[in-house]
Specification:
Layout (H helix, E strand, L loop, with lengths): L15 E2 L2 E2 L7 H8 L2 H9 L11 E2 L15 H12 L13 H12 L11 E4 L1 H13 L5 E6 L4 H8 L3 E8 L5 E2 L1 H7 L4 E7 L17 H12 L2 E5 L24 E6 L12 E6 L4 H4 L2 H10 L6 H13 L2 H22 L5 E2 L9 E6 L10 H12 L1 E2 L1 E2 L8 E5 L4 H17 L5
Parallel strand pairs: 3-14, 5-6, 5-8, 8-9, 9-10
Antiparallel strand pairs: 1-2, 4-11, 6-7, 10-11, 12-13, 13-16, 15-16
Helix pairs in contact: 1-6, 3-11, 4-11, 5-6, 5-10, 12-14
Keywords: Pyridoxal phosphate
Family: Belongs to the class-I pyridoxal-phosphate-dependent aminotransferase family.
Protein name: Aminotransferase class I/classII large domain-containing protein
């Protein structure tokens, strides 16, 4: 019988190793390590310790997604816009890689309201949320030997993407005793000729701070001047843009785009409370055209040609969402967040093992310091969060996940009743583990 006939399958040579077939593929360990850096990965590890016998509801104080709570429901204008886009049958097609023109024009107009110059649709690229935007920018910047300056504490997805892109990470400190301002001297000392960019997150995740942006106080201006001095661009993560409820109003980094070029990352996710819609953008704030001259804009658009893009019907809804959402909706969300931040501050400052360096002024989370010296049987912040989940069914993100060991990131964007319940359980846990005098 001929080999390969229909009556008998073809015979293949097998390479044997220790009596077993030898395969020539394997998983990418680097991918596994990068995944372990993510908020999702760490929260999963903690959640795995929940006690199934505990009949109380699990309270999530470790993730910035308040969409399940009625008080945080998005505006009907956004819902109607999505329905209208679908029913129009105009958005069932593929979209251009950088996004459909009406959506990009609307984002440009929306952002221009807070800038001293006007953006054009060509200054905007749409992305599948902020994660995609981070991936695009860092991949484009990841030249051989390049490094990037990231805040500590910060958002760990930057580290994960940088690791996969072989982009070296260097951390500059945010100073808790100074309202989480940037340590500019430390930042400048980290940079060299291979530094390509710095990241500024405003309003702050995970710290809950809002950087002062006026020309008198000048912290953001100083960041821009430092970037110009170093010859690097600024990546402005403004996912929580406008969610400011303290003494400092939100000022976009793009205001200082004439000093140093800025790539702004924004989304619908937080301000409209629709993280699952996965609609974000990269905006080029660069009146001097530096990013165009050095090929960054072209590289971003080229990358998007081979990447995923947001669902076209969501893009189709963007103009109506941005142009018709009323100030009443935004003010309602700010009011709810203000109340939640006050509850969080009031409850946590009563717990002896927790120190509150700075009351939250924006975003949806806050960093607090853990004093292990007054606790018995708690090794570090990860151990604290793991045992808290097991004993109290409360999930909090350990500070090590965002770059500060033995700190905690507490998310307060939930309804008052479960927020008080969850923080009350944290207090009970701390009192139970307090060292006896």
């Amino acid at each position: 019988m001929e080999i390969g006939s229909r009556d008998q399958p073809p015979k293949h040579e097998e390479k044997l190793e220790n009596g077993s077939r030898k395969w020539h593929f394997h998983g990418k360990q680097e991918m596994n390590r990068a995944s372990s850096l993510s908020v999702r990965g760490i929260l999963k590890a903690i959640t795995d310790n929940l006690n199934g016998a505990d009949q109380r509801p699990t309270i999530m104080l470790g993730r910035g997604d308040p969409s399940e709570y009625p008080c945080f429901r998005t505006t009907p204008i956004a819902e109607d816009a999505l329905v209208d886009a679908i029913r129009s049958a105009k958005f069932n097609c593929y979209a251009p890689a950088i996004g459909i023109l009406p959506a990009r024009r609307s984002v440009a107009d929306y952002l221009s309201e807070d800038l001293p110059y006007k953006l054009s649709p060509d200054d905007v690229c749409l992305t599948v949320g902020a994660h995609h935007a981070i991936e695009v920018i860092l991949t484009v910047l990841a030249q051989p030997g390049a490094n990037i300056l990231l805040p500590r504490p910060g958002y760990p997805y930057y580290e994960a993407v940088a690791k996969l892109s072989h982009l070296e990470v260097r951390h500059f400190d945010l100073l808790p005793e100074q309202g989480w301002e940037v340590d500019l001297d430390g930042l400048e000392a980290l940079a060299d000729d291979n530094t390509v960019a710095l990241v500024i997150i405003n309003p702050g995740n995970p710290c809950g701070n809002v950087f002062i942006g006026c020309w008198v106080a000048r912290p953001l201006l100083k960041v821009a001047e430092t970037a110009r001095k170093l010859g690097i661009l600024v990546i402005a993560d403004e996912v929580y843009g406008h969610l400011a409820f303290g003494g400092n109003p939100f000022v976009p980094m793009g205001v200082f785009g004439s000093i140093a070029p800025v790539l702004t990352i924004g989304t619908l996710s937080k301000r409209w409370i629709v993280p699952g819609w996965r609609l974000g953008w990269i905006a080029t704030n660069d009146p001097n055209g530096i990013l165009q001259k050095f090929g960054i804009v072209e590289s971003i658009k080229s990358y998007l040609e081979i990447a995923a893009d947001p669902a076209t019907f969501i893009q189709g809804a963007v103009p109506q969402i941005l142009e018709k959402t009323t100030g009443c909706f935004f003010q309602k969300i700010i009011t709810v967040l203000t109340e939640a931040a006050d509850i969080c501050y009031g409850e946590l400052k009563e717990i002896p093992c927790i120190t509150f360096p700075h009351k939250p002024e924006g975003s949806m989370s806050v960093m607090v310091k853990l004093n292990l010296l007054v606790l018995d049987g708690i090794e570090d912040d990860m151990d604290f969060c793991t045992k808290l989940a097991k004993e109290e069914s409360v999930i909090i993100l350990p500070g090590v996940a965002v770059g500060l060991k033995n700190w905690l990131r507490v998310t307060f964007a939930i309804e008052p009743t479960p927020l008080k319940d969850g923080l009350g359980r944290v207090k009970a846990f701390c009192l139970r583990h307090a060292k006896k005098e």
